Amino acid sequence: MHISYPAELPIEPMTSVPNRDVSVPGSKSITNRALVFAALTPRKGACVLRGALQSEDTEVMVDCLRKLGFTLETHWDDSEPRVCFPAGIPNGIPAIVADLFVANSGTTMRFLTALVATGHGRYRLDGIPRMRERPIQDLLDALNQLEGVKATSETGNGCPPVIIETHGLRGGQVKMKADLSSQFLSGLLMAAPFADDDVTIELVGPVVSKPYIEMSVMMMRQWGYRVAYQGRKFQIGVRREEEESRDYVIEPDASAASYFFAAAAILGGRITVAGMHRNMLQGDVKFVDLLEQMGCRVETCASGITVHGRLLKGIATDMNAISDTVMTMAAVACFAEGPTTIRNVGHIRHKETDRLSALVTELRKLGVEVEEYLDGLKITPGPMKGCAVDTYNDHRMAMSLALIGLKVPGMVIRNPGCVAKTYPKFWQDLERLR
């Protein structure tokens, strides 16, 4: 999807309190997982992914799967966006050689690094300069523990480009770290059913973003994979059964919904996000729990989740489990009574940008008092002045900082087009709040 945006986008403050129902696109995290499952799962009939997200991250996943030899059709312009896989799939990865470009999509890089290890051949994965700074050595180390695979960082620095030379996964036991990204474990979990024998994975050290690991496990079970875990050990059985066909519905994106819930909190209005509920696969739905702690009223009904903005108070919170919403919370914290402290999110320094450092820099431009820690930050609200803010080519920086402009005059978002990574129509949807 290509939408042209100016180099700088002014954000006009809202002149009225919002009272709106909104819809957000499908989850990026679920869409990219479902694309992997749909490509690999043995199947006699067709497979349709309904409500799939069209964004830069999902389009690069689609492009890479095609380069690996998989056949799929995208129907992005229909009233219900979907991806269709025809009846029957190849036995394993068709391509024996592929050069894959993932842009700055962490899920695509990590998931496909593990996926191609199930093939037979040589595969290279690369991305934009920022991707070449994002660590992946923990996943490479895990793959190298499985016979049949040689996984290396091309430059030897533990970051992409990645080279996978493989004769197929043999199965076996793996010890791996997941303290920088849960996507390392998720990628290996999804590839493991296509090994020659069962795979056992034991985690070593701290683990970040546990809800995303739980999402992967729950989706594996939805797709008929055998996975069991207790404590820090996962056991994955070999997938041999064929299914007739599959219709899979993608949930609305909970991370995207957080911006509209936050808008209600900041502006004091009522916003309902359609299709949301408390028991979603996505852990980021728990962002509304933090808004409740800050003073908002949250309601759940058949149509979705509603946030009613109220007088906000600062909180202290561990956001490790829902770290993609740290920047959304930072925007809300600027309008609370008293400071807000966010801890245990040091791993977000390895995302599209160093998100903690970027937040500190941009919030200080606005006049906000911010203390930076190795694993978090403390925001003390005060008078703010609008200015042009940088987004570091990070979609979540752009969308979160824009929320401040709904109340503070003079806000300008630089490089607003970076939202295309996960939410190409964000600016249009934000404007519909007026």
Give the topology, please.
Blueprint: E1 8-11, E2 19-22, H1 28-40, E3 47-50, H2 56-67, E4 73-75, E5 82-85, E6 97-101, H3 106-116, E7 120-126, H4 137-144, E8 149-153, E9 162-167, E10 172-178, H5 183-191, E11 199-207, H6 210-222, E12 227-230, E13 233-236, E14 246-249, H7 254-267, E15 270-274, H8 287-294, E16 297-301, E17 304-308, E18 316-318, H9 326-333, E19 340-343, H10 355-365, E20 369-373, E21 376-380, E22 388-389, H11 395-405, E23 411-414, H12 426-431
Helix pairs in contact: 1-2, 1-3, 1-6, 2-3, 3-5, 4-5, 5-6, 7-9, 7-11, 9-11
Supply database-style keywords.
434 residues, alpha/beta, UDP-n-acetylglucosamine1-carboxyvinyl-transferase, Chain, 2 domains, 4-stranded mixed beta sheet, globular
Q: Short description, anyone?
A:
This protein is α/β, with parallel strands linked by helices.
What does this structure look like?
- The protein has 434 residues and is an alpha/beta fold.
- The chain has two domains: 8-25 and 252-431, Enolpyruvate transferase domain (UDP-n-acetylglucosamine1-carboxyvinyl-transferase, Chain); 28-234, UDP-n-acetylglucosamine1-carboxyvinyl-transferase, Chain.
- The chain has twelve helices and 23 strands.
- It has helices at residues 28-40, 56-67, 106-116, 137-144, 183-191, 210-222, 254-267, 287-294, 326-333, 355-365, 395-405, 426-431; strands at 8-11, 19-22, 47-50, 73-75, 82-85, 97-101, 120-126, 149-153, 162-167, 172-178, 199-207, 227-230, 233-236, 246-249, 270-274, 297-301, 304-308, 316-318, 340-343, 369-373, 376-380, 388-389, 411-414.
- The chain has a four-stranded mixed beta sheet, with helices on one face. Strands 4-5-3-14 form a four-stranded mixed beta sheet, covered by helices on one side.
- Helix 7 packs parallel to helix 11.
- It is globular, with a radius of gyration of 21 Å.
- It starts with 7 loop residues before the first strand and ends with a helix.
- 51% of the residues are buried.
- The mean pLDDT is 96.
